[in-house]
Amino acid sequence: MSVQITDLYDNWAELTQHAEQWKSRSLKQAFAEDSNRAERYSTAAAGLEFDYSKNHIDDKTLELLLGLAEKADLQGAIKRLLRGDHVNNTEDRPALHSALRFEGEAQSNEQKEVAAALEKMGKLVQRVHSGEWLGHTGKRITDVVNIGIGGSDLGPRMVTKALTPYHTGDVKVHFVANIDGAEINDLFSQVNAESTLWIVASKSFSTLETLENALTARRWMLAQGCAEGDLPKHFVAISSKVDKAIEFGMDADNVFPMWDWVGGRYSLWSAIGMPIAFAVGMDNFNKLRAGAARLDSHFAEAPLDKNIPALMGLLMFWYSSVLGADNQAVLPYANHLQLLPNYLQQLEMESNGKSVNKSGQRINYQTGSVVWGTEGTNGQHSFHQLLHQGNVLTPIDFIAPMKAQHDLAHQQKYLIANCIAQSQALMEGRDLEASKAELRAQGVAESEIDALAEHKVHPGNRPSSTIVVEELSPETLGALIAAYEHKVYTLGVLWNINSFDQWGVELGKLLGTNVANAMETTDVPADWDSSTQKLIKRFLQANNA
Ligand code: F6P
Questions:
Q1: How many other C-beta atoms can be found within 10 angstroms of the C-beta atom of residue 215?
Q2: In the predicted model, is pLDDT for residue 24 greater than 90?
Q3: Structural fold of domain 5-71+302-428+463-501
């Protein structure tokens, strides 16, 4: 028999009864009844101001949710995470991403190893930036390409983009992830073999996409005239399997370590963040780490009712497990944060998309949810229609850096005005009477008003939180990412699942290899399903095999 959510929480009936009340109670009404609501349901730490007042919650809701956190021993779980217990129980290891971003002197053994790796990375960045590190024809490095995928791509790529105003301009940073040769092929026309440094980033050093792209880059370098013996001037690697990287052909001095106790999707603070350091310099990379470290301290020390990641997790649990939401939107009102939703997709969905609990028992409740979104205001002219009038429950995170990092102040005003107005409009809505009044004011005929008014109704009562930062700096970005990491862990604790493994990606990899072999040998097993056979034959036909 599978485990039910009610097996975890014996007061579930009270929670669902309380949820019923929210069906007849509007957020608009809640704001009207309490002029202090925004203050009451806001908290701040590490440069983040978290306003969760436009959510379907009141003191009773919070009391019940905090009761669940107590039952799940969230506070104990936070301690276990941060002190390095083996919270990743299926792989029998810690998830010590917090050890990657300490401030000040390294204390633990892990921190000392991190400090050594980052010192080595800092030297490389400095040598490349200063022009001391030269390519095979004696030219300085102008372009750095990160080859990696998943956690070895999404975090560094997102942060590099997010910190555009901090780019030093010493080198241009590029990313290649996909096995689709189109990506690396396009890049070849943008870089010069004499002045390009390739980073091969792979925790396992066994990921098909990364190894194939690295081999392609290597072949291209040789074809462009780089001698085999000069390849170390153009290739460095980051991996927890240093020996595999060396076996692959990397020079031992050019391999930077990471560790089994860091999950790939939690690793941007390690040498996996090398592209970030190349783009913004080591000082800014360390500020990013410092921002995250401050948020770690907050997660460890703040009471749960003031704890940003804990509240983010509890709110999502409320929407997902109690109110039935199966998706959540993240809408950063900052163009440079446009890759945040992609990054969060891996963080949340690879961590919490599970159907067994920590002990391997099948669970019948939903864990994880679809994360989606894009940068504001672009989404307003696309999918916000569904948010405003569709019947899909989508809790939203708005992210609002108040100050621009450019001089176009009037555009920043419109940007943030739209962010604020979206959460207001989603919450308040517009009823039938107001729709009619608006049409009347426009001089529309009564017969047409009757036909149109209902279409113009906005049901409102749509929940959102707003995370405000003064400006998008390395420190606030670090804190923001760490808040999401810990939100994901909070949810994992509440659902009693392991957020740090990802066995679900394995079957597709295995079958991908089998299908590729069938294509290679043109020997398609007759006992495979007819659709799979047909698709493979179609590929062979298109490629004259
Ligand atoms: O296939 C999923 C995955 O293992 C992710 O968890 C990981 O971030 C990504 O592949 C890349 O892995 P690696 O860094 O080992 O190449």
A1: 13
A2: no
A3: Rossmann fold (3.40.50)
Cβ 213 under 6 angstroms from ligand 1: no
The rounded Å distance from CA 504 to ligand 1 centre is 12
Position 310 pLDDT exceeds 90? yes
* Tokens linked to 246: 């060396």
Three-state DSSP class for 41? coil
Q: What is the 3-state secondary structure (H, E, C) of 264-324?
A: HHHCCCCHHHHHHHHHHHHHHHHHHHHHHHHHHHHHHHCCHHHCHHHHHHHHHHHHHHHCC
d(CA 61, CA 28): 17
Give the separation between CA 540 and CA 248, rounded to whole angstroms.
31
- Name the phi and psi angles at 370, rounded to 5: -70, 125
| CB 234 within 8 Å of CB 136 | yes
* Euclidean distance between CA atoms 522 and 533, whole angstroms: 11
**C-beta 90 within 6 A of ligand 1:** no
pLDDT digits (tens, 9 = 90+) for 415-441: 999 999 999 999 999 999 999 999 999
Q: Please check whether residue 176 is in contact with residue 147, taking contact to mean a CB–CB distance below 8 angstroms.
A: yes
Distance CA 300, CA 128 (A): 38
Residue 350 annotated to the active site: yes
The residue annotated as part of the active site, out of 110, 194, 209, 350, is 350
The response to whether residue 202 sits with its C-beta less than 6 Å from ligand 1 reads yes
Query: How much of the chain is helix, strand and coil, in % rounded to 5?
Result: 55, 10, 30
With contact defined as beta carbons under 8 Å apart, do 122 and 284 qualify?
Answer: no
Tell me the per-residue pLDDT of 334-387, one tens digit each, with 9 for 90 and over: 999 999 999 999 999 999 999 999 999 999 999 999 999 999 999 999 999 999
pLDDT in the model for residue 37: 98
Tell me the two tokens of residue 152. 């070895």
Indicate whether 23 pLDDT > 90: no
The CB density around residue 162, as the number of other CB atoms within 10 Å, is: 27
CA angle 349, 495, 15 (to 5 degrees): 120
343 CA distance to ligand 1 middle (Å): 13
40-94: pLDDT as tens digits: 999 999 999 999 999 999 999 999 999 999 999 999 999 999 999 999 999 999 9
Identify the H or E element spanning 183: helix 181-188
- What fold, for 97-286? Rossmann fold (3.40.50)
Among all chains, which residue has been given the structure tokens 């007042």?
53
Looking at the chain, the whole-number percentage of residues with pLDDT higher than 90 is 99
In order of 79, 346, 514, the CA distances from 103 in angstroms are: 19, 27, 47
